[in-house]
Structures are given as structure tokens and as C-alpha cells.
Write a structure and sequence with these properties.
Strand content: 15-25%
CATH architecture of one domain: 3-Layer(aba) Sandwich
Number of strands: 12
Oligomer: single chain
Distance between the termini: 23 Å
Order of helices and strands: EHEHEHEHHEHEEHEEEHHEEH
Length: about 300
């Protein structure tokens, strides 16, 4: 099968440009070993193609302009993996709404407008510290996900967001406990989790100063996998990752879900599973189309 492959634009890979490129390249190689012909396009180059040949698309893209374009293509019946609709569902505010509405364990959170005084939002959460995250998109800069110790600091950060033209934000309660990072691929047995503090994961060392070292609280890893799979279903993504906080009792809450993350600590192992999942989806879609044509 002929497939178009669109990697993530570097702007949307903060601190992970090489890692994002690496897992995407390994996945493309695995698809080629399965017999597929893969055509590679950068985001801007793909947007200049007209007309577009109707062939399946795999993508790590996140830019709003390209996602809107891919959504139009999806509406015509062309498979896109991850779905552009699913990627959009992973924008912070969208993700928070979808997870909480569907009963996925998630921190208490309130979406706010950044140019208004949101003192009441902080009071409603009654938390010892808060996380403020841009709500309109994925995190691009380190400051897009920030911890504040008290309400006044949070109000000042929201004002800073507004000055950066970030119109909406999500305020979440701070959860004490172990930070656990995970990666998964729907339709396969692949699921990898680890403690990023223990692995000296550079992105999370600043958070370690807030949460403290991992206590390695006992928890049900199979339940975490099942919850993450359900969250991926709710959001509409096949290739996913995320973060959870595990408390002293072993209960956990998902604090983030990402569409097609870097799989940095396990990408060589993950790539064949990602390719197999894509192959299965596209093969099933092809058989469905053939059946519908035959029985039309």
C-alpha cells in the first residue's frame, strides 16, 4: 500500500526534536519492511500539494493549519493515523474536558480565560500548589506548563500567558505522589512505563524539585494500562503516551495524554508495534472498502 508520512515540525518538538524524528523514522522503516511504499513530506511541503492523491496518511503533525487540512481529508474517508481529530482532542483544554466527562481519573481542573481575574478558580480547587497549563494547544515552551505555589503567583502567571497571546489556560490541583510516564500502542500488547526522575529524564528534573524523589509506591500496572487505553479511546488516538501521579495508597490519576510521543527510552522496541498497528488498521480499512464495493 502507498502511504504518505508527515513527521512533526521541529517547532512542536520542544526538547525532543531528535527523539521525535527517530521514532517516526523507525516506524517508516518497519512499514517498508511490511511491504508498504512510504512517501515522506514535511508539513509545509504537504500543504503545497494540490490535488492530493487519496492515500493513507501517518503523521505526528500538530500545527493547527495542517490539522484542519487533514481533518478535511479524513472527512472524505482517507485514513489518517493518528487522526487529526484525535490530535486536536489532546490540546490541553479539550483533553481535560474529554477525560473528566468520561470518568477517566484526572486532577480537579478548571479552564479559564487568561485576561480575567480568576481568583475564584484557585479558591475552588483548594490545593497546596497549582499547575497552570496553556489550554489552547500542546506545550511548546517550558513555561507552557508551570507550577505555582499560591494564588497570587498563579494570577501573575495567567497575566503572563495573556501577554504571550495564550487566551485560555487550565488550572489543575497539585497531586503529591510518584510521577510515572507511559507509552502505548492501541491494538497491540505494547505498554511501557517508568519513573522519569529515576531515569534522569532531563525534561522532568525541574518537576523533581517540586514533587521530590520517587517513593515507588506500589500500584496496579495492568490497571494503569487499561486506563490509558480507555483514555486513548476517548481521545481518538492509536499511538499515545502520557503521565500519571501515583499516591501512597496506589491510586493514580492521569495528568496528561499525548498523541504519538517520542517513545525515547523504548523507541526501538515500540516502532515495530506502531507499524503493525498501522498495518492492521489500513489492511482492515482496505478489506472493508473492497467488501462495500463488491456488495454495492
Amino acid at each position: 500500500m502507498e502511504i504518505i508520512a508527515i513527521p512533526r515540525k521541529d517547532l512542536y518538538s520542544p526538547n525532543h526534536i531528535g527523539n521525535d524524528r527517530a521514532v517516526f523514522s523507525l516506524t517508516v522503516s518497519a512499514l517498508e519492511k511490511l511491504g508498504h511504499q512510504v512517501y515522506h513530506y514535511e508539513e509545509d511541503a504537504f500543504l503545497r500539494i494540490s490535488p492530493i492523491k487519496a492515500m493513507p496518511i501517518i503523521t505526528m503533525a500538530r500545527s493547527k493549519k495542517l490539522l484542519q487540512h487533514l481533518q478535511k481529508i479524513e472527512r472524505t474517508g482517507v485514513p489518517v493515523i493518528n487522526s487529526a481529530f484525535g490530535i486536536e482532542n489532546c490540546y490541553r483544554e479539550n483533553m481535560t474536558v474529554h477525560l473528566t466527562r468520561n470518568g477517566i481519573p484526572h486532577p480537579k481542573s478548571i479552564a479559564v480565560v487568561t485576561d480575567q481575574n480568576e481568583e475564584q478558580a484557585f479558591d475552588q480547587l483548594e490545593s497546596k500548589g497549582y499547575w497552570i497549563k496553556r489550554g489552547d494547544f500542546h506545550a511548546i515552551h517550558k513555561e507552557d506548563v508551570s507550577f505555582v505555589a499560591h494564588k497570587q503567583e498563579g494570577i501573575e502567571l495567567l497575566q503572563e500567558f495573556h501577554r504571550r497571546n495564550i487566551g485560555r489556560a487550565v488550572i489543575s490541583e497539585h497531586l503529591p505522589g510518584d510521577l510515572v510516564k507511559f507509552y502505548g500502542v492501541k491494538g497491540t500488547d505494547f505498554f511501557h512505563w517508568f519513573y522519569p526522575y529515576d531515569a534522569e529524564h532531563q525534561k522532568f528534573q525541574e518537576y523533581k524539585l517540586i514533587n521530590g524523589a520517587s517513593s515507588h509506591f506500589q500500584f496496579n500496572a495492568a490497571k494503569l494500562q487499561k486506563t490509558a487505553e480507555r483514555a486513548a479511546d476517548v481521545l481518538g488516538v492509536h499511538i499515545y503516551g502520557g503521565d500519571a501521579i501515583v499516591d501512597a495508597s496506589g491510586d493514580f490519576k492521569l495528568i496528561d495524554m499525548n498523541d504519538w510521543p517520542s517513545f525515547a527510552p523504548c523507541r526501538e522496541k515500540a516502532a515495530p508495534y506502531i507499524a503493525q498497528s498501522i498495518h492492521h488498521i489500513l489492511t482492515a480499512n482496505l478489506l472493508k472498502d473492497q467488501y462495500e464495493v463488491k456488495n454495492a
